[in-house]
Structures are given as structure tokens and as C-alpha cells.
TrEMBL record:
Origin superkingdom: Bacteria
Record keywords: Membrane, Signal, Transmembrane, Transmembrane helix
Low complexity bias spans: 43-53
Bias (Acidic residues): 741-752
Protein name (record): DUF6049 family protein
Regions of compositional bias (Polar residues) in chain numbering: 54-77
Residues of the signal peptide: 1-46
Amino acid sequence: MAEPAELKGTTSARARRWLRRTGALLTAAPLLAGVLQIPAAPGAHAQPAPTQAKASGSRTVDVSVDSLTPTTPSKSDTLTVRGTVTNRGDSTINTSYVGLRVGQPMNGRNDIDTVAKRTGYSPTLDGTEVAEKYEQKIGKLPVGISRDFTLSIPVKELHLGANGVYQIGVSLTGQTKSRPWPQVMGIQRTFLPWQQTAAPKKSKLTYLWPLISTTHLTARTGADEQQTPIFQNDDLAAELAPGGRLQQLVALGKNLPVTWVIDPDLLATVEAMTKRYEVQGQTDEDTTEGRGQAVAMQWLNDLEQAVQGHQVVALPFADPDLASLAHRGKNVTGALSHLQSATALASTTVDTILHVKPRTDFAWPVNGAIDSSIVDVATSAGAHNIIARSDSLRETGDLQYTPTAARQIGGGNTAVVADARLSTAFTGDMTRAENATLAIQRFLAQSQMLTLQAPDKQRSVVVAPQRMPTATQAQAMAAALGALSGRWTQPASLGEAAKAQPDPRATQRVPGARSYPATLRRQELPTDGFRKIQQTQSTLDKFEVILTAKGRVVTPFGTAIMREMSTSWRSDPRGSTGFRDSVQAYLQGLTEKVRLVKKTDVTLSGRSATIPVTVQNNLLQPVELRLVLRSQQGNRLAVSEPQVVTVQGGHTQSVKFGTTANANGRAWVTAQLYTVDDQAYGPEMSFKVNVTEITSTVILVIAGGVLLLVLAGIRIYLQRKRSAARSGEDGAGNSEKQDGEAAEDEHAEPDEGERARALVPGQPSDPAPDTGSQSADLSGSGEKVER
């Protein structure tokens, strides 16, 4: 837009000042060059500049407001604004300066949103500059160069009026060679809450302070007596260390009026780190020792002190994804039982580790998005208070103010509706000082405006931020809470918010399933995932029955199954699949350590015999099963009754089954392990048994034995006859000699019966009933079992 020609020749100092201000006002507002990263209301995006903002020069400079103190000033304060200006254009800016502009107070919460989204300078909307003496001269600003600025202005010079939220803007005014007249070349807006006296009806503000992390523990444990836990990685140690995310949350939260919302799995995981733990490597056997014991112990100690005197809400163990359960898991048999188990475990875990009694009657669906099915699932596990969000349970009436958070939604259940604007205020990138400053000022402005909506009504307001805020997000959150200073809010616990008297005109109808956000639905755990979870649970149930030290297996796998349903997997679907598969594979590998040793074919040389079957147990604890042997040709071969077998850890046990052959020929025999509750355990083992009559070889051996016995009898008879004859000839004196010769003959040769028995094949020795760990290879080939 062309500038008024008659103003260019003005030479007096007063005229030059007037020219500079008027020229700045008449230039149309361009888009702001700096990226304004204030979290907007859900679904909000940058909109095109208003039609009056047509000037092209104001997008040239990026104005960054890095700090603003005090955030909620009083009349006697001095407002200090610090930041930087950067020339993003293509030519040098001359005679530039930075000034502060004060706009009109906001008329409502929607006005705050509109100003936050507006990016162009408007002379009618951005107000006038404060007195010239508070400007900071920048002078020449070459392309790509940044300059720091500090504006210090007594609050009384801002000429603020009634209590309210005021728009303030920091702008750079300058000129270029091609546009040699003063103009706004960059602007950044923020908000200044102004409250001279305390509000007559302060809002009761409940701020949730979440301690939640991703899954770190695996289902694997060490083979030692202590069952050393094995972690997926050692990343949690960095979060617990000074400056880490979780350390900052505890350090900041201990001095704030907040309600702690804790995932008990995080406590259990950190508690496991206080002792010796291992970190898995590329393979299952490749582990290294964890190094986070010291920071874990310090963090738990600090947390235990921090939560004293505060309300603690425990989520179900591992923070299960309620929406996924409601939309995809509830039709999978047994899925909902995991939620009940996780809820029961929550209270015990928090009480044991932190020594405080938590509340477990609150459910927190992801992003506070609810529908009727989510409410049904959450309440099925005993949570009768559902933390929702106002962009899910929207107001459909004609209320002109934000109602109290509590809503009665039927069935004795309460929806505690968190304010969406306040809850999403710090979801952006808070690593930049500018982003944190703007987010803090916007949070304060929205909270004050909420109170000003209906100053004669005291309402309860709940803030439910993101589940896992970063360290810088937590710092911004803490700064905003600390700045409230009690002028228009007062702290309240989540329990108090749930008990507050609901506004009868507020929305109480829970939306249907179709209203659930599509973006959140796409992140849910798939139905097939719940089927795999149930498969793992079924495997664990069957395995548990045979164990004697059940806790060594049931506890780590039970908690691992709960972790498979964690809300944290929404941001890592590939990791979710990998974790489920690894748990199932590891459990399956353990079950296979108890098995039957494969047998080769067996030959029975007779009508009855015993067949040994060997059970191997490579676990570290004894197991008890029932072993059943079945003949597939019962008319040919019958086997004895099933037997209960107990096998010590690291041992094998041979079980002998009696058999009776009714006919010659081949018979197939199967061996199957069963649990004591009669469920098949492991694969069936089959082997072949060859049944034969008494063989020709055996007959020859027996006949030879009989012949030898006959010959031996004849010889004895002849010897005795000759001896009797000699006795008659030599008389009684020779009887002793004859007896000696007979004895000498008896010792000279084996007894004929012994010779016969020596030719009869002996029974092969059976394996020892209980042996140490041995190879699971096939039993020796050509195994022959005789009567």
C-alpha cells in the first residue's frame, strides 16, 4: 500500500515521531516470520491473515519473546520483556527499534484463541506503542543478523484498566532502502493477565501430575535364586538421573499443589533397578549389567517424600489402553480380566513402595476421549470416575461459561471433564524459551478468563496434561502453576473435583462410538494383538499347573502380559508387536524344557515286559505331570495304567510301564504328558514295538539247557554207582577218599544247571529311575526289551 506523499517531507522532530507512528499504523500487517508454537485448541491451525492485514513488510523480522516477568504483574511492578529480533528478509533494515504495544482486553476465551492464531499485524487490533522512552533502539539490522532486546516498562505506564486479559505485542519498526519510511516489520503477540484484587469466587483448580513411562522390563529373568530382572535397555536410568524427565517431574511436583497420577508399573520397574539387574543385548544370552541402581534409589526416596500430603491416584498396572480394550479387545475371551488384575495390583504396588494408600477408582482414557463403550470397560474394573476432556464431552447447550468438571453420566458413574485448552497448553516444543514463555502466558490468560466468565459462580476446573511430558514441558507447567499466585484460582485435589456439585445445565450424555476421533482409533492395539495376548495367557495357565515354584514364572509373565496392553504402545506399534512376540516366544521356550525323550523302535521277546519312558526337565524347579502310554493296537499289545511323575529341576526321570503281548506283530505306542488337571502337555511321542513269540534261538538254548541237565544227571548217577561198588571192595576205610574225589570232581567242573542258566539271555538293566540332566537325543537304536 502506498504511503501518504505529503508526510514524507516533514522535517520537525515532532513531525518525524508522528510520521513514524502513523506510518507504522497505516502499513497493513504481514505474516509473522517467527514460528509461533503456542499449543492451540485441538484441531486449531494457522489461518489466513485478516483481510485488513495486507502490508508485506511485517513478515520480514522474526520477533522472539523469550521471557516476560512478572507473568501476572501488579500495579507497582515493572514489566520486563526480553527476546531477540532476526532479519529474515533480503535487505538491510535501517533506523529500527523495538517497542511494546498494548491492545484491548479480551472478551472471552475464544478471543484468546483467535489472537493466538492471528499472524498478521493490524493497526486496529494490535494497539498503540507505549511511550517512546521505553523503546530500544536497534539501528541497522543486516540480513540474517539477530539482536537481543530488553524492554523494561513500569506497569502503570501500560494504562491497564479493569481486571482482564490484555493483548500485548512486541514489534520491530524500521525501514529499508526500497521502502524508506517507518513500518512494522515484525511482531509477536502474547497475553498479560491483569488482576488488581482477588476474584470473589476463585476457581478450584485441579492439576494432574503424571508419572508414567514406557515399558522397560522384559519377561525374562536370570537363572539365579533372586531372579535378576532383565531390561530391554537402560534408558530409564537417564530419565531418573538429575535433569532427566522423571527426575524433573518429581523435583518440580513436590512444591506444587497437584494430584499425582502414577502408573504402578513405573514404580515396580524402578524398584527392580535398585538391586542388581541386567540389560539385554542383541541375543538372549548377550546381557550386560545395569548401572542405574544409585539413581533409582534416589528417585524413589525423593518421590516418597514428594507425595506426602498429596493425593495419589494409581492407574491400573502398566496403564492399559482402555479405548483399545473397549473397541477391539472386549470380544476376545479373557481380555477384560487383565484390566481387573491390573487394577487389583495397582494399590498393592503403590502402597508397598511409596507407603501411601492411593485411589484406584479413577480411569484415564488416552487424551480424555470417551464413548459409551470406553465408560463400560473402565467401570467394569471398579473405576467409577472417568477422566474425560471437554473436546470429547462437548457442551451442546447454551452455557456462556465453562461448567464445573464433574458430570453425572448414569449408573453411579462420574465423568471428571478436564478443560481441553488448559490441558493441551504445554504439548508443543518447550525447548525454545519463546515457546515456553508464550505457552505460560496463554495458560494464565485462559485460566483467568475462565474465572471471569462467571465471577459469581465458583467452579471446579481440572487440567489433565499429556501422559508423558518432557522435562522442558514439565518446567513450563510448573512455572505456570507457580505464577497463578491464588488471585483467581485455588488448588483442589482430583477427589474434591469428582465430588463437586455438577452444573445441571452441563452436558451429561456420553457420546457414541462413532464420535471417537479417527486419529486415535488408528493408534489402537489391533484385535489380533489381543488374541496373541490371550494365547500367551493360555500357555501360561497350562504351564503354571505343572510347576512347584509357580511364582518364579507366573509373576514375571503375568506383569509382562499387562504391559502388552499399555497405552504407551500407541506411539510405537512396531515395538508393541515385537514385545508381544518376544514374551510368547520366551514362554514357549520354557514350556519346551519339559518334554519326553524320543525313543527308537522296541522289540518285545516274550509275552510280558516293561518299557521305560524318560521325561526330561531342564527347568530350575521340580515339575509334576501325569504320563500316559497308549497302544494303538490294543488287541496285540496292552500297556499299564498312567503314572504321575515328579521330575527335579535339571534332571530326567524314567517311568516303567508294564506291557502284555497278545499276538505277534508290530504295534504303535504313543506317550503323552498331561497336567494334573488333564490337559495335554507338549507334543505326543510315538514309537514302534515289535512283538514276537519265543524265537528259535531261545528254543535251542532251552533245549540245550535241558540236554545238559539230563547228561549231568546221568553222570552223577554213574559216579555214585561206581563209588558204591568201590565201597564194597575197599571197605569202610576207603570211604573218605571216595568222598574227597567226589568233592574234587564237583569243583573241577561247573554245575550243569549253571551251564544251562549261563546260556539263557539275561534281562537288560533298566535306566536309573532318576538321573541327572542328560542329552535329549534318541534312545539307543535296536532297543530290545525281554521278559
